[in-house]
Amino acid sequence: MNRITHLFGIRYPVIQAGMIWCSGWELASAVSNAGGLGLIGSGSMSPDLLRTQIRKCRQATRKPFGVNVPLLYERNEEKIEILEEEGIRIVFTSAGNPVKYTPLLKKKGFTVVHVVANVKFARKCQEAGVDAIVAEGFEAGGHNGREETTTMVLIPQIREAVEVPLIAAGGIGSGKAMLAAFALGAEGVQIGSLFVATPESSAHPAFKQKILEVDDSGTMLSLKQLGPVRLLKNKFYEQVCRLELEGASPEELARLLGKGRARQGMLEGDLNEGELEIGQVAGMIRELKPAGEIVGEIMREFREAQKFLETI
Q1: pLDDT tens-digit readout, 151-193
Q2: Torsion sign over Cα 281, 137, 15, 308
């Protein structure tokens, strides 16, 4: 047991990322039942749908689980009220300033974790009173840091800057990668892409299949003028690149993005015009596996890697 497993009351320091359109109750409960911490991704949910998801998750697992609340979306106050009413105790916030909601959440008795991509915001997190920090490198899928700092560079810098428990995210695709993150000061890992490619993920089957076909160069960070997002390369991505090369303004890029582009891609399975958010480790994923199997494999490989290093 370390500080992360103790904080959440879980067996393994493996946290499933709360990914928009991919992280419903089925995935969260499967990860929690396997000994990790599952998260319901509320960013794509209305408050009423979030309540339904929480209740279904509670029926599917007696283990701890939490909810991710991305701060760039609307109706967060309503969602926080629902979390309180439904007895949720663990909240991961992301995509925004930790000062905005951390004091309120702590006053209400939540365990609060915030996702950051640089040392400045890690310090803000500690000052705001978070219980733990997720340090996410730019290998990660979805919304990302403007600094483009890799996970292996980010973790030791944040570890030196703060004292609260630290969770590594971005590019964690194996138990070996988890051990490397621990060697640099992490006490847990948050994993997204591997869990998208599971039967329990709410991502569209066509999106899951596309992930299996991606090679090591299949994703790129784009839309930096609006907010960096790592995407699979497709027709929509190519349109973004063309506009960026032509010097398009943020307003022009926003018009191309429109509304519902991520839903169109990840939930509805439009592989050409949809926004397909996934991390660089997609190039390592070659088969769909149950979420519980992934947790078990990560921990076995982690221990095997530990033993191997002891022989050197």
Answers
A1: 999 999 999 999 999 999 999 999 999 999 999 999 999 999 9
A2: positive
Residues 221 and 278 reside in one and the same domain: yes
Which residue in 29, 81, 20 sits closest to 55, CA to CA? 29
Q: Is the pTM of this model over 0.85?
A: yes
Are residues 42 and 186 located together in one domain of the fold?
yes
CATH of the domain at 296: 3.20.20.70
Strands 166-169 and 188-191: parallel
Residue 169: both structure tokens together: 């995210």
